Recover the amino acids of this structure.
């Protein structure tokens, strides 16, 4: 429950991704952000493997 208060981990992440999503939708940058996210995901999985 502590994570849901302002300043908590989950609260901060939810706020961050909400802002990112609103900017992405507003600027039609959704495909760019999705491709960047997929690249980061791929790099992380390679790094762990």
């Amino acid at each position: 429950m502590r994570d849901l208060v302002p300043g908590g981990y989950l609260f901060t992440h939810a706020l961050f991704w909400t802002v990112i999503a609103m900017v992405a939708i507003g600027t039609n940058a959704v495909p760019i952000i999705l491709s960047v996210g997929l690249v980061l995901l791929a790099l992380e999985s390679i790094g762990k493997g």
Remarks:
- The mean pLDDT is 79.
